[in-house]
Amino acid sequence: LVEIYLKQDKFDQAEAAGRDYLKLYPTGADAAVVRYNVAFAVYRAGRKDEAMKLFEEVVGADPKADSAAPVLLEMGKFALELKRWPDARRAYELYVKYHAAKGGALSARYGLAQVAEGEGTDAAAIVAYRAVADTPGTDPLIAEALTQLVEVYRKVGAEEKAQLAGQELRKRFPGSAQGAHSLLSAGYEHFNAKRYNDAIFAFEAFLRD
What pTM was computed for the model? Predict the structure, then answer.
């Protein structure tokens, strides 16, 4: 019933049904999942500080538990939305520490890079995004990490490294939206720096893509 209410965006009803279940079965087999759903419902209802405390309670019982893994990812995501960088960092670090072999590990590592960027530590953000970008495969988060590398390099004035990261992005993800965006971004950067020939080259490459 809780999950049905959540799918219908009836967050108050989902919270009430979840709390009723927990009163009756506080140690039931589904209690951890229900606590997570209650916290999610509270967050979506707009009571975000209260929701973060509820997420903490779910994770605090046993961050190593399998049931804690999705909660940690959601905690990190919501903390990022609220720009609560320490909370996001803690959630993602716990995930990497205890659930590194699970499918969400790349998301957690990307989240740590976002935290570093949000905190304004560009050097740490570059290292973290680079670590994600160096992951083998074609996961979309790898393309996103390369895209962010381009942006952070440009932010710190490392234009040559930005261009190299953009080239890597387009080589590994040909025809991708991120690759096309990197060309467009490079074109504007060249144009603003009055490197008009380079700007024309980038814009033409963007149009070809």
Answer: 0.79
* Crossing angle of helices 31-44 and 48-61, rounded to 10°: 160
Task: Using CA atoms of 131, 133, 139, 143 in order, give the dihedral in degrees to the nearest 10.
Answer: 140
Could you give the CA distance from residue 193 to residue 49 in angstroms, rounded to a whole number? 44
- Give yes or no for a contact between 32 and 21, defined as CB atoms under 8 angstroms apart: no
Digitized pLDDT (tens) for each residue of the chain, 209 residues in all:
888 888 899 999 999 999 999 999 888 878 888 888 898 899 889 898 898 888 888 887 788 888 788 889 988 998 999 899 999 999 999 999 999 999 899 999 999 999 999 999 999 999 999 999 999 998 999 999 999 999 899 899 998 898 899 889 888 888 777 766 666 677 677 677 776 766 675 676 666 66
